Each structure stands twice: as structure tokens, then as C-alpha cells.
Amino acid sequence: MNAKKWMIMFVCCLLSLPVLLAGLNFVVDPFGVFGHFTWYSFSETLNPRVGKTEYLEEHWDDYDSYVVGCSSTSSYSVEELNAYLDASFYNLIMYGADMEDVEKTVAYLLENDTVRYLFLNVYVDNGISIGGGEDDLTLKLHEKVSGASPLSFYGGYLMADPNYAMDKLEAMAKDTWLPQTFDVFDEATGVYDKRARDVENISDMERYVAAYPVFADYPVYPTELAATERCMESVAAIRDMCAAAGTELIVACAPVYGEYLNSFSDGDLAAFYTALGQVTDYWDFTYSSVSWEPRYFYDGTHFRNAVGTMALAKIFGNDDVYIPEDFGAYVTAETAADHAAALTNRGGGQDDSGYTREVPILMYHHLSEEGGTDINISTAAFEDQMRALRDGGYTAVTFDDLYAYVEHGTELPEKPVLITFDDGYESNYTLAWPILERYGMKATIFAIGVSIGKDTYKDTGAAIIPHFSLEQAAEMVDSGVISVQTHTYDMHQAAEYETGPVREGVLQMAGESEADYMAAFRADLETAKAQLEQGTGQAVTALAYPFGFSTTLSEALCRGEGIRATVTTESRGNTVIKGLPQCLYGMGRYTVTEISGAELLALLEG
Amino acid sequence: MSFTSLSFLIFLGAVAAAYYLVPRRWQWGLLLLASYGFYCWGGGRTVAYLLFTTLTTYLAGLLLGKLNRRAKALPPEERKAGQARLRRGKRWAALGACLLNFGMLYLLKYWPFTAEVVESAAGISLYVPDLLMPVGVSYFIFQAVGYVIDCYRGKYEPERNVGKYALFLSFFPQVVQGPISRYDQLSPQLLGEHPLSWDNLKYGIQLAMWGYFKKLVIAERVGVMVNTVFASYWDYPGSILAAAVLGYSIQLYCDFSGGIDITRGAAQMLGIDLAENFRRPLFARSLTEFWRRWHITLGAWMRDYLFYPLALSKPFRRLGNFARRHFKGTVGKIFATSMATFVVYFVIGIWHGANFRYIAFGFYNGALITAGLLLEPFFVKLRQRLPIRWEGKGWHLVQMARTALIVFAGRYITRAPRLLAALYMLKETVVSFHPGRLLDGTLLTLGVTGFDYAVVVLGMAVVLGVEWYQERGGHARQWLERQNAFVQWLGIMVPLLAIILLGAVGQNYVGAEFIYAQF
To answer: Are residues A91 and A141 in contact, defined by beta-carbon separation less than 8 angstroms?
Structure first.
């Protein structure tokens, strides 16, 4: 081939590159606009505006109501709204959405569906800017919403950076049940999939701030609310469109982290919230005691799902849920100016003693007359410890007390302590129970399901310390002194007796697929729950991790199976927080050894 | 304008198209215009430094040419006295131009370092002007000084047309990073008329693609890992440090030689052959040979304009006589040249930058090569005694490995953030190597994935395979030419896709997911 022909071929190759790129983007379809390899969670993560529009185009029939707004909108639970209003909500949160995006989206919704309720989240950021008219592939609105030319819209996605398509292929291989950075949306509800974040252990402030250092010294960048007027024009347009369509509009202002609120001037804030009142009545959660508690936030601009639960309970008058007294106010045109003025009168930080408590958990195993090891202490020592607790003014609480505290705000006794026993030894029945009763204490026993009533390891015949029977368990539960909860059914395996592959606590085994692992874990939990609930008549809601091993996935699976508290063997105390049920996951426990009652008190009082 | 930017490709395409469309006598003018456009685009006002060097050396060249002609025209009876007088004049002219330009280079590149050293040693704080570094200053000044010295030596007639001379210094593919060209080789090509040659276009494009492959696919990729390790070298054991230095050696070679291939490829598209700057340095069997294969034009410049003048200078001749009298045998004979060699490598080290590290690097190379020269008689005797096939392939491999190891150790010095850090890292590599750490997953925490390592390893395998073929006398582009159309098509598409998918599109791409990292 001569050089001239080579050059022609070279130029043809160059020209074929755009065609190849278009082909790649068309087939792999990372933004989900061509309908191939549909994976809404992935495409919505790349661009929620476009991804969710594509999703709705296929699912109009599933919904009759919508939640709209920027990313903080995600923490309003669709399930709770559905229950309060007997509706079918879809949460259309779009990160960074300004009110013009929302207005266009609402127009599109009303045009395509008969909408019963529209829940509009107005966030203080909506006053910063509006109408950026984003061209970025990851930020633009769908042409069906924006009215842009379909040619340039689809053309843009055909010519998208091939990395997006490559990322999708890679992500398809790496996909897991829990969300990862590339699939953060829950498809059916439209919210950020927070299954992992909502089981992370949130306890004392020091550990929380160490995990989320942004809260240690929150950066404040003075910001102007320059777009308030235009934002309110869009809110008014939304109000009018809803009125015309017969859609009921609910407007709520999301809780804002206190330090973040300091980014704005008092004048701007007052103007923003007054102007909103002139346009529509609204629920305002922007500022309250919640604003100063970092543990109620994922980061400075996103409040936790649990806070969304409080807000909805406030709006719909659900007294069952804990709601701080100063949280949420209904604002009308008449009250807006006064309310907005009050907003500018804010404190700075606060004392958390009104809504947090320290609850130490003690961990015991086996008791015997002679005692002598860390997991087998003498009855004498145990009795001395119980006596000391009673005399020291401690009240033993149960997990039910903790649920009531975090979910409903029911107060705990002055000095609460939670006593637990692992494994379910018969000595708990014969020795510990009478002593507990004698000193007015209560305890929770985490029994290994497969060992209940056994003095040999499973079917091996190998002798082990005897375990109490289901009948004995029921007897203890009936007394009101003991609660029997689960230590898993058969995930507390002893390597020396097992013949097949051995699981380390509840952890996934090497070579086990995620699906197999999840099935095994769920089956184990369901067996354990059924066994105990049938045997004792008491609901199983707490779990102690065998050997203390746990993962985010195991926590999420527990939560999915109705487990509301999990304990580990990490030696630390626990802060429990009203309104934040997730503080009961991954709790720490103190191992109590053969120490005197006085030493135990010293340990508890640190 | 970076070679790896899309704007450069468009610029190059436009210049090449215009170059073959305009009347041929305008071609050099177009190149001059394009070159200054290119320089101003990237360097803005720093073009003043380029102009300064161009004008001073242009005038010095003219003056030297005039003095040379006058010397030749002297009648025989005045020749002796007249030539001495003219030689003084020539010396002043050449020295003046060199001092002005090296002075400028010193001010730009070495003065801040001098001031720092003076301040820490004597506590005197010296004024350091805040100057923008002009692109390619080390290259065009050396090229210009070479021209002045050649004029001084009367090697050729100086250029009379200032525009034509300006093109020699500013030719856009090479102004950024060399090669350091010679006037008598480059200028006739720049000024000549070039009809459209499909072969040149094709070879140029292929060479540039090869350069892009090395630079974008290999160097940029491995550079991420290198930066991570060097940024916190104290966190890693010797084996990881050694892996990072190996990565850096790969990065440096692929980046520099890749850049030169792009330069030479772009020039070839315009029908201009630039001097070769790399000749497969990894196959060098000694450190001296390495420096004859690595950055060739710098070494050649040093040889012609530093080594010979130095070795032939009066002080060195005196040193030679002294050595011959006092040392026995070969050592006495080669002592003076060895010392001149040491100075040359020392200067090469410092040429790279103003820093104790580069001084140490120069010293390292100079000392090893000089020691090698001085110990040569001993090695000769040793070789005669040992029963090894000194011309066999095995010994060649040993020599290559030895040279690579020496160069590798030198890389610690040039890449470490400080000289002491380099010494620390060398020490760690020797005393706490911990080879197990290479396999425990640490390598995957350095900002690059297993896939990236695979790309680098495969990429290097391709580079070394091609170089091995060339080392044996093969010509890769001609080999490709002999293949059928399909293979030739693959020869275009595979590198194109590799460069685009594994190289170019990786730059500046931020997956949307990073927005969500906090969730």
C-alpha cells in the first residue's frame, strides 16, 4: 500500500471514531436515554433529572403523587407519605436542582399524570441562584422536560465521554446489593438509597466527628441569597399550576444545619422566608434545636432520614414519633414576617442532655460456683456486682426501653444499665436469673438457636457447657426479668467441631456469592426468630453478633429482618439519641470479669 | 499549548495543510509565523527571552563572520599580528554573547537557588525577581550558544537573514523540549522547499502516534502511582519505594522519549528530519553508552562545546603533563581527560535544574564514569583472568542489567523531593526491603488499579519489543508497510483507540459518582 492510500485510510479511521463512540454510547447507554441495558439507579446517579424522567416515562401508572426539590428532599420517606395520605408517592429529588428546574419538572408531571399530591421541598439554597441552564450531560434536564431540541439532546448523549460507558460496564461487574457510589438511588421510590448510612453506628459525638470531620470545624462561606425573588416566582407558578390541575400542594422547608445557616445574612434569610409566606403557606423546619445536632445530618446540607420522619410526623400530627418541641412551624402569609424575624435570632450550639443518654451495656456469658475465666464468673462475684448496681442507684433497662426512648422520646431512668448474657447457658437459668430477681435487675440473654437445650455441639456428640431449653427460656421471659433475644441460629460456629466450611460469625465465607450469603443469613435469622418467638411468645428484635464480627451488609440485613438493635463486643459505652433509632446498631459492651461490685461501679462511672 | 491537547493537534493539522498549499518559497515564512504563534500562545510575554537570545546571538554571529572574513583577507605579511588582534575581537564577541545568554539562564533557573543557599549559609537575603520561566529556555539557549561557537570556529557562514535565524531557534515542534539541533543540519532543511510527500506525512503521523502512546498510555498512568508514593515516601517500605522508582524510570523514559517522538513526528510531517535524541537507552551496556543513547543531543552538545575545549585548554594540558609525570601507566595518560569527563557529567546534572539533588546527580554520574575510566586497566586484567565468555549474550545481558541498576539508583536522586529524602529512600530500599509488601495489596492503594498496572506492563512489553526489533536492525514502520491492508488498518486503529481510550480520555475526566462520594 502506498503512502497516499495509507493517508486516506488514516483519515477514514479518524472519521470512524465518532461513529464508534456513538455506537458505544447507544448500546451501553450510561445515561439510560436509549433504552438499552436499563439500570435506572446507575443512570439516575449520573444524571437524576434525565434518569428519573426516563424512569417515569415507563412507570406513570405506579404513582399518583410526587415529592420534588433539591437533594435534601431525599430524606422525606415515600412509604411514610403513602401511609399518611393513602397515596403512591415518587420522590423526584435531583441534586443541585434550582426552583426553575423544579417548576419545569412540575409542569411536566402535571402534563403527563393526574397528580393528587405534590410535596414541594424549599431549601434555603434555592435562594442562591436560579436558571443556570445547565448544559452539562450530568446536570441537564430531559428534553421532554426542558423542551430542548431532541437532536441536540440525544446527539449530546451519543457523543458523551466514553468513560461513562466504560464506568457502566465496570459497575455492572461490581454491583452489590447495597448501594455503591455508582448506584445511589432506590429505583422504585426515587430516594437516595441510604440502607448503608442508616445502620452506621452513631453514638457519642467524639466518634461521630472523627468519622465526619466536616462537623469538627464547619466551614462557613458567606453566601448571598440573590435569587430569592425569582425563586418565589417559580414557587408561585408551581402553586398556580397545582391549583389549576386540582393537585394538593404541600410546601415544607427542610431542616438546615446551624453552622451552614450562618453562611447567610439575617436580612437575606428574613427576606427569603417572608417572601415564601407571601406566595404560599408552608411548614418550616429550617431552624430548631435539631439544627445544632450534627448527628441528625449526613453532612451540612443533608438531614438524615430519621429527621425526615420527625418532620412528616409533625406535618401529619403523628404523636407516636418523637419530635423536639421547637421543631417545625406552620407559616402563613400573616405569620411569615414574624416567623422569619425569629429565624434570625439563633443561638450557637447547644447542650445535648435533653435528648441523649449514656447507656452502658454489660456482657456476661456463663456463671458457675467457682468461676475463674472471662466468660465464666462465679455466682458470688455476680451477686456482688448486682448488689453494687442496685445500691449504686442503677436501673436495669431492656431493649424495649431503648426503642421507646429513641423512637418516642420516652424518658429512661436516671442511671440506666443494660445487662446481657451471650450464648444461652443453663447457668443463666439456674444461677443468674434468681440473683437478678433478688436485686430487682433485668437482663437480656442472646441465645444461640441451634444450641438451645443442648449439652453437645450440634449433632457431633462433642460435650459443651449445657444450654437452657426453650421451656426454661419461656419461664424466664414470663417472669418479666429476662428477655431472650438472638445470637443467631447457627452462625456461632466452632471450627474444631465443624466438618464442612466454617463461617466466621455472620461473615461471608470465601468463595460464597453475595446472593448465597444473603440467603443464608436471612434464613438463619428467620429460623432463629421463629424458634424463639414460638418458644417464648416474645418478639425477637435484638441481636448479638457472634464473636462481635459485623459488616455494613450484616447490619442492613438485620434491619431488613426487623432487628432494631445489634450489639458487638467492642468495649465502649453508648450514647442513645432521641429521634435517631440507628444509634442502636453496633452498640458497644463491657465484658464483665471476676471483679468486685465496687470495681464494676468504677468501670461504669469511668 | 501542550502536545497532548486537542488544540495542538488542530494547530498541527492546520499548519501542515497550509504548509503544502502555500507557494514553496513562503514555506519557511509560514513556519516562522506558526512557531512564534505557538510560542506566544503558550508562553505569552516570555517570548521576549526568546527574542533576546535570537537577537544577541544573531548579531554575535554576524560579527564573528565578519571577523573571520577579515582574517582570511589579511595580506600574508600582516597575517600573524592581524590574526591575533582579530582573535581577541572574536573572543570578546563570542564570550559576550555566551555570557549574556548563560547569564539570563542563570538568573532564571539558578539564581533563586543561589539566593536560597546564600541565605541559609550566610544569612544574607538576596533579591529574587519573580520571573516567569520561558518555555524551553534551556534548549534554545544551548542551541544558540552552539551556533555562536561554531561561528567563532568558522565552521560555517553566519545567517544574514534575522527571520531565517529566528526560525532556527523557534521551530515549534522542538522549541519546548529539544532536541538541541545544530544550525548546519537544521537550517537548510527549514529553509528548503518541501513538496508534499505522502511518505513523510505517514511516517510523521506514525512516529507521533508512537510518542502519544508512550506518553499518554504509559507515562501518565504510572505517574499517578509515582506521585502518591513520593508525596509520602516515609509511609512505605523499601520494596514499594523501589517499585515507585521503577515506575518513575518508566514514566520519565516514556514521557521524554514520547515527547521527542511527537516532536520528530510533527517535524517529519513538514519534511524536516530532526536529530535523534534517544536510541533505546535501556539496551546500553555501560553508563557512558547510556548517556550516548539518552538525550543524545545534550550529550553531543556537551562533547563538542564543553568537553573538547576543556580537555584541550591550557590548565587541563598542564594537568595532563603533571599526571603523566606522577602516575604510572594508563592512569597517568588518561587522568586529564577523565577529569574533563567528570566536569561534563557534573554539568549535565546541573543542567537538569537548580538543586542539590541535581548537583548530586551530576556528581554521581561523573564519579562513576570517571572511576570506570580510571579503573579500566584493572578491569582488563581481571577479564583476562576470569573464565567467562566476554562477548556472549549472557554477559551483554549482565552489562545491561548493571547499567540499568546504576541508572535506576540515580533516579532516586532526581525524583525525590529532597536530597536527604533520596538518601533515606535508597537506605530503606537496601535495609528494609520487605518484598512481601509488593503482594499485600499496597500497590493497589496508590491511586492506580490492577488494570492500570496491566496496561503499563503490557505497554512496556510493546515498547521493549519494538525497541528490541530496532536494536537488531529492524525498522518498525517499514515492517508494517510490508503487511496486508488489514494489518495496516489494525496498525492505525489499535494505537488510535489505545491512545484515546487508555490515554486521552482519562485526562480531566471526573465520573459523576465523585459527587456522591460522601453518601
So the answer is: no
Residue A466 sits in the same domain as residue A552: yes
What pLDDT is attached to residue B504? 67
What residues of chain A lie within 8 A of the CB of B497, using their CB?
20
Q: Residue B284: inside a domain, yes or no? A: no
CB contact under 8 A, A10 and B501: no
Each residue's pLDDT tens digit, B298-307: 999 999 999 9
Residue B133 lies in a domain: yes
Asked whether the beta carbons of residue B198 and residue A6 sit closer than 8 angstroms, the reply is yes
ipTM here:
0.85
Lowest mean per-residue pLDDT among A141-150, A297-306, B279-288, B497-506: B497-506
Range(s) of the domain holding residue A523: 356-604
> Any chain A CB within 8 A of the CB of B512?
yes
Question: Per the structure, how many domains does chain A have?
Answer: 2
Asked if A299's CB is within 8 angstroms of B496's CB, the reply is: no
B192 and B64: one domain?
Answer: yes
A343, A367, A399 - which closes a domain: A343
Among A343, A366, A390, the domain-final residue is: A343
pLDDT tens readout for residues B325-340? 888 777 788 888 888 8
Neighbours of A219 (CB within 10 A): 9
Tell which B residues from 162 to 201 touch A, by Cβ distance under 8 Å: 197-199, 201
Residues of A in contact with B481 (CB under 8 A): 1
H-run or E-run covering A282: strand A282-284
Whether residue A10 lies inside any domain: the answer is: no
Residue contact B519–A163, C-beta within 8 A:
no
Q: Measured between CA atoms, how close is A127 to chain B, in angstroms?
A: 22
Helix intervals (H) in A86-227: 99-112, 143-146, 150-158, 162-174, 205-211
| A252 domain-assigned | yes
Same domain as A213, residue A240: yes
With vertex at residue B82, the alpha carbon angle to CA B79 and CA B83, rounded to the nearest 5 degrees, is: 75
In angstroms, rounded to a whole number, what is the distance separating the alpha carbons of residues A435 and A383? 6
Please give the grid coordinates belonging to residue B348: 549535565
Min Cα–Cα distance to chain B from A60, Å? 27
B439 and chain A: CB distance < 8 Å anywhere? no
Interface residue B513 vs chain A (CB under 8 A): yes
Q: Which of B196, B225, B242 is the last residue of a domain?
A: B196
* Contact flag A13-B198 (C-beta cutoff 8 Å): no
**CB B238 within 8 Å of CB B428:** yes
Among the partner residues B205, B500, B517, nearest to A10 by beta-carbon distance: B205
* Chain A CB contacts of B519 below 8 Å: 179, 181, 184, 192, 194, 197, 298
CA angle A497/A501/A504 to nearest 5° reads: 80
Residue-wise pLDDT tens digits, B34-51: 999 999 988 788 899 999
Helix B47-73, helix B137-152: angle, nearest 10: 10
**Domain boundary, last residue among B399, B415, B431:** B415
Is residue A90 within 8 A of residue A78, CB to CB? The reply is: yes
- Chain B environment of A140 (Cβ under 8 Å): none
Q: Confidence band (pLDDT; 50, 70, 90) for B518? A: very low
Backbone dihedral region for residue A365 (phi beyond 0: left; psi -120 to 50: alpha; all else: beta): alpha
Residues of B in contact with A93 (CB under 8 A): none
Kindly state whether residues B25 and B76 are assigned to the same domain.
yes
Same domain for A333 and A364, yes or no, is: no
Pairing status of strand A361-364 against strand A416-423: parallel
All residues of chain A having their beta carbon less than 8 Å from the beta carbon of residue B9 are none
Kindly state whether residues A225 and A319 are assigned to the same domain: yes
Q: Which residues of chain A have pLDDT under 50?
A: none
Q: B492 vs A10: CB contact, 8 Å cut-off?
A: yes
Task: Give me the number of domains chain B comprises.
Answer: 3
Q: Which of A313-322, B58-67, B318-327 has the lowest mean pLDDT?
A: B318-327
